[in-house]
Design brief:
This protein is an all-alpha fold. It has seven helices and no strands.
Length: 120
């Protein structure tokens, strides 16, 4: 996929153009929304990335990569509990070492957050 190549080369604007074209052609492809989310994360557009991951999940709820990158965007926004949940969903669907590492990075902070506001 050309957009993925552009993403890896750091040409985010062109990658975004290409993936937007792909989404117009095939709006029911869950993978395309995740590819765009990955680009949006690189552009620090985390809320937009989350929306794309939500769309991907609505198309295919079993697409673990969508949870992975939604979690990443949420982590970068400081929404650690939500990120941790998404990472768990991702690993339940399809274990990924990178996601496991991201979970370990935030686990202690999530525990502290949960301890500071006990569930009613």
């Amino acid at each position: 996929m050309k957009s993925l190549i552009r993403l890896k080369l750091g040409n985010y604007d062109r990658a975004l153009e290409l993936i937007n074209e792909a989404i117009k052609i095939n709006p029911q492809c869950a993978r395309n929304y995740v590819q765009r989310a990955r680009i949006l994360i690189k552009l620090n557009k985390f809320d937009m990335a989350i929306k794309d991951c939500d769309e991907s999940i609505s198309i295919n709820p079993d697409y673990g990569v969508a949870y992975k990158f939604r979690g990443r965007a949420k982590q970068l926004l400081g929404r650690l509990e939500e990120a941790y949940y998404d990472y768990g969903q991702s690993c339940n669907i399809d274990y990924n070492e990178e996601v496991d590492e991201w979970m370990k990075e935030i686990k202690d902070d999530v525990i502290k957050i949960q301890a500071s506001h006990p569930h009613k």
